[in-house]
Amino acid sequence: MTLPAHGRPADEILDELTALRARDLPTHGGKLFAYVYDPAVPGLDDLALRAHGLAASTNGLDPTAFPSLLHMENAIVAAAADLLGGDDTTVGNVTSGGTESVLLAVKAARDGRPEVSAPRMVLPSSAHPAFAKAGAYLRVALDVVPIDPVTLRVDPDAMARAIGPETVLVVASAPAYPHGIVDPVPAIAAAAAARDVRCHVDACFGGWILPFWRGLGVDGEPFALDVPGVTSISVDLHKYAYCPKGVSVLLHRTAQLRAPQYFGYAGWPGYGVVNATVASTRAGGPIAAAWATLQRVGRDGYRALAATTLEATRGLHEAIRAVPGLAPLLAAPESSVVGFRSDDQGVDVFVVADALARQGWHVQPQMSFGGIPRTAHLTVTAAVAPHVPAFAHALRDAVEAARAVGPVLSPFPQLEPAALTPEVVAQLAAAVGLDLSAGGPTDGTAAINAVLDAAPVPVREKLLTAVLDLLQRPAP
Ligand SMILES: Cc1ncc(COP(=O)(O)O)c(C=O)c1O
Asked: Is 205 in the pocket of ligand 1 (CB under 6 A)?
């Protein structure tokens, strides 16, 4: 499958792409509870695509060459700052996604303390892996504070105790992705400020919906720049701002705090390089698409979408509560995540997920970890609201089907990392129905998840990376 010898007709290419896309999970319609965010607003996709197209050939490498991008970036940052408690000292940038916002927050924190030779960050175990990735890329060690396996919450006193002389950053989430819990930001930020350490709030997931929920009467502590001690905050526009993928915002309380985020270089015979973000050549399309989406939806539109999502979230929570054998993760949802675990040994969450998938509903299985059992995660978006009764029905059926099947156990409970050669991993994959040549599972994911679940964390990581390595091979 190499480059075609001769160019192909456009229609043929688009037909092929359409056929390829038909094998993907459904991005619209509210039946996929992870990866995608669907507002079900007529015409919004078209507007975003046209805006994307208008800017697709620009390059954010040099904002003085393409002032349209600088204008749109500053407008997006101003909107985010307005929503997230910023004031006239707030500055920020548009990044390509939550992970990049987190990487840059960690870089700014690390490089803001050049006297610390072995920098560390303190974070709850529920914080997004983007922080672990930033730590690995930037050599910032992690001090992970476990969340309580029953309440799923982090103890702010334990966070405070974990801060040491080498801590350059303390992290809180609003909310943390796995269970949708909003960390106690005021207490965590106060502890960080007391030690003169930066505090980043990861509101990548919740930053564009929680402010509206607060206005709709959902209680919760403040979590944004209005909280003393919070020095930076991230919010993904490709989540609850319902923009096409590739846009997040990182805000800093002051320009001085942002300064170490920049990279400038003039020590070569080429053009002067100055980057606020990881990429140098920077796609203008996602920035224009996001700008257009924010302009189109507006504050009242986002408030209405947040209200619809709130109604859907409460409906899904009640649907879970009503099914014998399942338990919702929280007494009441505090963000737009709902989740469930099994409270019946005969009902395996991974099997329930497969049974739901067979009915067209896709929840996200989560491995057991730190005393927390297997769970299923549902990211709720506005598009699901009209379909809550249908989901409730499907969930009831799925649990009955899962009870009939019984739990799935790993046929390989004891795997040694050193034994996991590519050949062994390929055999394991085949044994649990993962078709590496077709690029996915042939009949559900319960067996695959059971193998991962039974393995210790380092083995899980090795298996995941080994499978991806086998999938990412040049097409034959
Ligand atoms: C809380 C949180 N932080 C960071 C991220 C990473 O965002 P991205 O996948 O855009 O890199 C996510 C993604 O789900 C998230 O939920």
From this structure: yes
